[in-house]
Amino acid sequence: MKAFQISFSTAQQATTWFLLVNGAVVPLSAYLAIKFPTKWLLLGLDVLLLAGMLISYAAPSATNGWWLFIAGRIMAAAAFGILLPLMQTIIATIFPPKQMAVAMGLSGLVVGLAPALGPILSGWILSRNHRLFGLLISHSWRNIFLVPIILVACMLILAIFQMKDVLPNRAVPRDFTSLSLSLVGFSSLLLGLTNVATVGWWNIPAVLVPGISGLLLICVFIHRQLRLDIPFLNVRVFLNKAFTLPTVLVVLVMMAMYGVEMMLPTYLQNILGLTPFQSGLTLLGGALFMGGLSPVSGFLFNRVGVRRLALFGFSLLTLGTLPFAFITTTTSARLIGIIYALRLIGIALVMMPLTISAMNAFPQSMAAHASTANNMARQLGASVAVALLSSVTQNIISQHMPTGQLKVTNPVAYAGQTLAASMAGFRVSFCIGLVFAVVGLGVAWFLKPKGEN
Q: Which residues neighbour 361 within 8 Å (Cβ) at sequence distance 6 or greater?
């Protein structure tokens, strides 16, 4: 914020725009995977991702450089939003069903570890200047981008020489109407949900107008896809219970995960007084468990089936979330790390197996549409969870906040009541995450046992 001379609310736009664009482009994945050769599509997305990060890295430290930084984040979000479903489509295409479980689990190793290691690395870089292999690494925010820039550059070089065209392509009509409905509809809906955190649910221009208009456009988009011989996105995949039920459970996992993930770093830093680096280390054990168990979950999927894994995983998720509803201002960071790890073990045991189960509901020719629809539902579920948790937590904190007069007459009492108000908001957020976990446990009973068609 100091580098760009902006306020906290303006700084939040970086996250807002990233999530908006990332969610809006997901429906494009199936169309692009079918229309363009895999190698050139991947190279184009890698170039777009690398260019976006380089632009953000090089943005000048001034107010007018902020929008250049945002432009870079938008480019990176557009690439990332397509890359994840594309990766799942490629895995579902090149591996037979039994091998796909392990392959998808290995991909979960990367997907699970990256978001956890990122904040820790960022906190380490920003804490002070470092020397690594004789090189000075300053604590500038720009150096946060260096590691991903180097990794993406290496990935781009490897893709040039190693990537093959593995997805079958066919002629797809240019459907600009569906493209426009998809982009505008999902962008508007996600924008409305994102604004809930700052202005509440009933703000007409910021929430209701974009949210309702986005829903209407999405309904028109769905109606159009059902009438087209060659749809832009085959939404009929949701008519298959074997696909829809695991996808719903994936959404519930995301919502339960956000119920704690959103507020826990703030609790560790604002209540327990940890630095960003220390809070990252507190949560590192859970992230390592989640990453390490992802390949194992693929193996277990082949052995015991998705139903047993889902029931066991949601049970662990529920048990690991329950203690968060009772944490206090004196709860030890070590205990937080242990119960957080228990939650992520449960998430690791269900996330990829449920995704694999959903993908297995269709032949390989439908992999692009199934992967896109699964990721689209996951993105919408995450956005709804963020909007719900942010608004409810903020309302609870506001209701329990002491009056400004108390700050003058009794500063100590004001500080104590402010702390209590924050804790009330955190506990409600954790309880909402617990509700999602319990609902997921109930829905998991409807999954079919292994071997039953």
A: 237, 240, 242, 243, 246, 370
Q: What is the pLDDT of residue 159?
A: 92
3-state SS record for 106-151: HHHHHHHHHHHHHHHHHHHHHHCCEEECCEEECCCHHHHHHHHHHH
Cα 331–chain centre separation: 28
Domain map of the chain by residue range?
8-172+230-444, 173-229
Query: What CA–CA distance (Å, rounded) separates 102 from 125?
Result: 34
| CB distance 143 to 125 below 8 Å | yes
As a whole number of angstroms, the distance between CA 18 and CA 28 comes to 16
Average pLDDT, the chain: 84
Residues in the chain: 453
* DSSP symbol at 208: I
Q: Give the pLDDT of residue 252.
A: 92
SS3 category, 105 = helix
The first and second tokens of residue 77, run together, are 């979000």
| 3-class secondary structure, 27 | coil
Burial label, 399 (beta-carbon count in 10 A; 0-12, 13-18, 19+): exposed
Nearest C-alpha neighbor of 284 from the set 268, 300, 306, 301:
268
Q: What are phi and psi of 169, to 5 degrees?
A: -105, 155
Other CB atoms within 10 Å distance of the CB of residue 421: 17
| Residue bearing tokens 């590192």 | 284
Q: Pick from 127-136, 213-222, 377-386, 419-428 the range whose average pLDDT is largest.
A: 213-222
State yes or no: pLDDT of 453 exceeds 60: no
Q: Looking at residue 54, what is its pLDDT?
A: 94
Residue 335 has phi, psi (to 5 degrees) of -65, -40
User: Per residue in 295-329, pLDDT tens?
Assistant: 888 888 888 889 999 999 999 999 999 999 888 88
User: Terminal CA-to-CA distance of the chain, rounded, Å?
Assistant: 55
- The reported pLDDT for the residue numbered 116 is 65
Question: Does residue 383 surpass a pLDDT of 80?
Answer: no
Which residue's entry shows tokens 């820039």?
A: 149
Distance of CA 286 to the CA centre of its chain: 17
Determine the average pLDDT of the residues in 357-363.
86
Determine whether 161 is exposed, middle or buried from the number of CB atoms within 10 Å of its CB (0-12, 13-18, 19+): exposed
Look up the CATH architecture of domain 8-172+230-444. Answer: Up-down Bundle (1.20)
Give exposure, 328-347, as e/b (b: 16+ Cβ within 10 Å).
eeebebeebbebbbbbbbbb
